[in-house]
Amino acid sequence: ANPSVAMGQDGAMTPKAIANRIKAKGLQRLRWYCQMCQKQCRDENGFKCHLTSEGHLRQMQIFGENPDKFVDEFSQEFEKDFLEHMKTCHRTTRVQANYVYNEYIKDRHHVHMNSTKWLTLTDFVKHLGRTGKCFAEETPKGWFIKLTPAVADPRLLTSEKEKLKRKRLEEADEIRHEKELRAQIERANASQQAQPPDKVEATELERKNGEKIVLGIQPTTKTNRKTNPLGTSILFNNEEEEEEEIPSDAPVNHKERLGSTAVHEADRSSDVRMQGVPRPWICPGIVVKVVSKSLKELGYYKKKGKILKVIDSYIAEIEMLDSGDIVRVDQQELETVIPQVGGKVLLVKGSMMGYRAELQGLETDKYKAKVCVLHGDLAGKEALVEYEDLSKLA
């Protein structure tokens, strides 16, 4: 047998070699660690030899070209790993900072603090307190830290955003409702001034001997309601045309009366359109896009969602497709979504409103879509509709 090999084998199992391997596995002195080379030296002599090595000099030359970049990277990595350790072991408890640091450095591959921009652990703890990531408190026993709720559980921050968003939507609804009421009151006052009521002056009651008092009270007619000084009918836009009185013995033409009723309904609907009030088109089951810039900071701007239900004809409760959040958005802050050719759509406006159809193509020069109705009495009918007249079915 080769004596040199035997000696080598015996040397690898000697107590000194085993002790050296055990020491290499554990933690060593921090001052003998090189972060750039990620090399741990066991004594001062070995650290001096490493400082003069070719690999270390090459790494230091790279570090010298942009030292701030490397220090910032090491600082960010140290802060990230430290907070992750806090989330894992001390998510909701108040603990001494030095105790957490000793737990953190048990990992021999951790980023050492001497390579960061913080000279001491106290500076690092103060930094966490200033940035709002921890509650820092100095006591006679040292610095104590505790994670803030936003860092400990990000879901709490999401719920706070939802509450803030709902509060803003409710405030917007109240402001819009107040504006509508104010506009209706102004229209009622203007109409009342244009048609002032007849003034009735009080006179003394003249009664002769033995004469009975007779009150000439006439029943209120639709014309009288129209000129009501209180302006109630004008305020709520419930005026009705005066109908001609038809003698009871005269023949009644039901077709003419039905026709006149339809004309009155058409007149009232045209009055609503003249006032600039948009017709509600949102309905459950369709996909829409949020275009409200006020929701941009919450991450919902230009995002798509599915309408779950409609509140008061103009407020849609939407489940966002990417995050699953539930939001309430006004109809004016939504847009329809056009699917790919062959996708199923719902006609939300126009004469075919409410019909399900299949998208067969797009005519981009005319800004119209070609659809084919899938059900009902119009099944199989093909038509060209505007882009905003249809929306994708979820």
Descriptive report:
This protein is an alpha+beta fold and 394 residues long. 40% of the residues lie in helices and 18% in strands. It is built from twelve helices and 15 strands. It has helices spanning 3-12, 15-25, 44-51, 54-65, 67-89, 97-104, 121-130, 149-152, 154-194, 222-226, 232-235, 254-274, and strands at residues 33-34, 39-40, 95-96, 134-139, 142-147, 287-290, 304-311, 315-320, 326-330, 334-336, 344-347, 356-363, 368-373, 382-386, 390-392. A five-stranded antiparallel β-sheet has the order 9-8-7-6-10. Strand 8 and strand 9 form a beta hairpin.
Provide a compact summary of the structure.
This protein is an alpha+beta fold. It is built from 12 helices and 15 strands. The chain has helices at 3-12, 15-25, 44-51, 54-65, 67-89, 97-104, 121-130, 149-152, 154-194, 222-226, 232-235, 254-274, and strands at residues 33-34, 39-40, 95-96, 134-139, 142-147, 287-290, 304-311, 315-320, 326-330, 334-336, 344-347, 356-363, 368-373, 382-386, 390-392.
Pick out its properties:
394 residues; alpha+beta; five-stranded antiparallel β-sheet; 15 strands; 40% helix; disordered N terminus
Number of strands: 15
General form: elongated
**Secondary-structure element series:** HHEEHHHEHHEEHHHHHEEEEEEEEEE
Query: What amount of the residues lies in strands?
Result: 15-25%
Helix content: 25-40%
Termini Cα gap: 80 Å
Number of helices: 12
**Rg over CA atoms:** 41 Å
Q: Which stretches are poorly predicted, pLDDT < 50 over at least 5 residues?
A: 1-8, 221-274
What is the SS-derived class? alpha+beta
Q: Main beta sheet: strand number and arrangement? A: 5 strands, antiparallel
For the biggest β-sheet, the strand order reads: 9-8-7-6-10
* Overall mean pLDDT: 76
